[in-house]
Write a structure and sequence with these properties.
By secondary structure, the chain is of the alpha/beta class. The chain contains four helices and eight strands; from the N terminus they run βββαααββββαβ. It has helices at 43-50, 59-83, 92-98, 148-158, and strands spanning 4-7, 27-30, 36-40, 109-110, 116-119, 133-134, 140-143, 162-165.
Length: 174
């Protein structure tokens, strides 16, 4: 079932939309400007609110779309984070990594205070590259396009959108 989208006024807190049977949808997604909210039981229906053709495509096309979203947003987030730092605080290698120009395999330990944004999938445990670690206070922020839910949850963590779970998953008991 497609998501239900509702226009909102920034700063307002509307009551969550309910299904015809009176129960809550599992998820509420709020776009960053708080101009609209979407309600759905399935994460894929919420991703379809972000990518209009998403629901009609094959799983392979949707996986490609999630990776594309992750890559574009990684570039945006990393640019924003870099804009608030002094380039003199970074080594040339760190600047290459922050600009997305470094060989991903070359990043093994992240030591600068500017967070590094990376995309899950190429790194262990699922990918072939060793997973880099952050030496505190350094931080590595991950965008995970592996599934609809993992993409939405990682974008929520980064502040790109707000994802709330309103209703518990139904549990089948035997």
């Amino acid at each position: 079932m497609p998501a239900i989208r509702v226009r909102t006024r920034p700063g307002s807190t509307p009551a969550p939309v309910r299904k015809p049977d009176g129960t809550l949808y599992r998820f509420e997604l709020t776009e960053p400007g708080d101009r609209w909210r979407a309600y759905a039981d399935e994460p894929a229906d919420l991703v379809a609110e972000l990518v209009p053709w998403y629901a009609e495509r094959s799983e392979a096309d949707r996986a490609d779309a999630r990776r594309s979203i992750a890559q574009r947003l990684r570039e945006v987030f990393q640019s924003q984070l870099l804009a608030f730092t002094d380039a003199r605080e970074h080594t040339p290698e760190q600047l290459l990594a922050l600009r997305g120009a470094a060989d991903p395999a070359a990043i093994t330990v992240w030591t600068t205070e500017t967070p590094l944004v990376l995309i899950e999938g190429a790194y262990a445990p699922t990918g072939h590259l060793p997973r880099p670690v952050a030496d505190p206070p350094a931080e590595i922020l991950w965008i995970d396009p592996a599934s609809d839910e993992s993409l939405l949850r990682s974008l929520h963590y980064l502040g790109a959108l707000v994802l709330e779970e309103l209703a518990e998953r139904s549990v089948t008991r035997s």
